[in-house]
């Protein structure tokens, strides 16, 4: 409660703020309900919505012919049968790049549970079996239409959370990925902070560009990896808050590897930023967390405004048990 009052004070002091803020935290389905079905497939997205996620994440890369598709990496070989279907299309480094395949070619791929591209071992052995399912990849536009349809059928809003992946890489391949994504968002009716949409990116220069050069007026989140703590040191948060509405930090930056809560959330709130850390996983807990619930407990106590999770069902269930779950999302 103290945090909420404090945030209200922050709103009064800082001027306009994103309308999407909530306590207790919003649940963002990381690549869909990716603990249960292959990441970024539409079934994984539908399951996430069915499990009560407030937002569903889309990682976005571009095909060779410049179509934004929903895929976590610039590589295809850890989540698809590209090596069998298109032998000989790897680059010198042995990897298969989405940027080398047209959308028509990408549509021929089976998308499967994530595995080590070198030896085929599943990353999370207890999850959906790698050799099952005939799932496919979706374009960003297809996924947004799918979620909008689901939202209408269910009669409740479903937020989206697209990430611009590796903008510099895409520029080298002749694609302005941010512009491509913003065009799709505009056509889908996402334009202002009132829309349930956060655009996220790791690249600070690109986050500034998205706001200033491309004129994005919706919610914007600066992602910060565990190895980029310098971005949020000193006056870093104030610089981020100049253009962004939120911070998407690695979990370790909120609760350190030693189990101590850092001052990041408090400092981010003081700068006027919401905080949505990543990624809460039952099958890959930080050392200090004995259970998924304990992880959520600690993040909740730290005052985060949202959590990225592979397990939306568990996060929603945890939240439902909180005394102040007022459904204010
Ligand atoms: Ca992401």
Notes on the protein architecture:
There is one protein chain. This protein has 329 residues and is α/β, with parallel strands linked by helices. It is built from 13 helices and 9 strands. The longest helix is centred in the middle third of the chain and has 15 residues, at 140-154. The relative contact order is 0.15. Residues 1-22 have low confidence and may be disordered. It binds calcium ion. Calcium ion is lined by residues 57, 59, 163.
Name the descriptors.
globular, 4-stranded parallel β-sheet, 5-stranded mixed β-sheet, 329 residues, binds calcium ion, 12% strand, TIM Barrel
Summarize the structure.
The protein is of the alpha/beta class and 329 residues long.
Q: What's the layout of helices and strands?
A:
Blueprint: H1 2-14, E1 26-29, H2 42-50, E2 55-62, E3 68-70, H3 82-85, H4 103-106, H5 140-154, E4 159-164, H6 167-172, H7 177-187, E5 198-201, H8 204-212, E6 219-224, H9 236-243, E7 246-249, H10 251-254, H11 264-270, E8 274-275, H12 292-302, E9 306-309, H13 312-320
Parallel strand pairs: 1-2, 1-9, 2-4, 5-6, 6-7, 7-8
Antiparallel strand pairs: 2-3
Helix pairs in contact: 2-5
What is the mean pLDDT?
Answer: 93
Number of domains: 1
Q: Which spans of ≥5 residues are poorly predicted at pLDDT below 50?
A: 1-22
Describe the biggest sheet?
5 strands, mixed
Which fold name is given in CATH as the topology? TIM Barrel
How many DSSP H or I helices?
13
Listed once per kind, the bound small molecules are: calcium ion
- Report the C-alpha radius of gyration, rounded: 19 Å
- Could you estimate the helical fraction of the residues in percent? 25-40%
Q: Count of DSSP E strands? A: 9
Output the CATH homologous superfamily.
Phosphatidylinositol (PI) phosphodiesterase
Question: What is the H-and-E element order?
Answer: HEHEEHHHEHHEHEHEHHEHEH
């Amino acid at each position: 409660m103290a945090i909420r009052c404090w945030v209200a004070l922050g709103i009064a002091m800082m001027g306009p703020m994103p309308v999407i803020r909530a306590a207790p935290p919003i649940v963002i389905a990381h690549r869909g309900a990716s603990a249960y079905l292959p990441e970024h497939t539409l079934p994984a997205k539908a399951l996430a919505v069915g499990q009560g996620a407030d937002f569903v994440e889309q990682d976005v890369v571009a095909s060779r012919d410049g179509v934004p598709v929903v895929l976590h990496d610039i590589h295809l070989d850890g989540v698809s049968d590209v090596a069998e279907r298109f032998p000989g299309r790897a680059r010198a480094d042995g990897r298969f790049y989405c940027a080398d395949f047209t959308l028509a070619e990408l549509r021929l791929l089976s998308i499967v549970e994530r595995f080590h591209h070198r030896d085929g071992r599943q990353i999370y052995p207890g999850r959906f079996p790698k050799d099952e399912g005939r799932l496919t990849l979706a374009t960003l536009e297809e996924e947004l239409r799918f979620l909008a349809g689901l939202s209408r059928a269910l009669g409740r809003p479903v937020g989206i959370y697209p990430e611009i992946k590796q903008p510099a890489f895409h520029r080298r391949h002749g694609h302005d990925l941010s512009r491509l994504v913003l065009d799709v968002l505009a056509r889908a009716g996402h334009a202002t902070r009132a829309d349930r949409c956060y655009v996220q990116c790791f690249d600070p220069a690109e986050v500034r560009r998205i706001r200033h050069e491309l004129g994005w007026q919706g919610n914007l989140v600066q992602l910060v990896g565990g190895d980029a703590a310098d971005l949020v040191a000193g006056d870093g948060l104030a610089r981020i808050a100049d253009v962004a509405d939120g911070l998407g930090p690695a979990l370790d930056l909120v609760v350190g590897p030693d189990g101590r809560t850092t001052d990041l959330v408090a400092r981010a709130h003081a700068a006027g930023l919401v905080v949505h850390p990543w990624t809460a996983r039952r099958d890959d807990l930080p050392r200090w967390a004995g259970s998924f619930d304990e992880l959520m407990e600690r993040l909740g106590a730290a005052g985060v405004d949202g959590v990225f999770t592979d397990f939306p069902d568990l996060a929603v269930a945890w939240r439902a048990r909180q005394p102040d779950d007022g459904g204010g999302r």
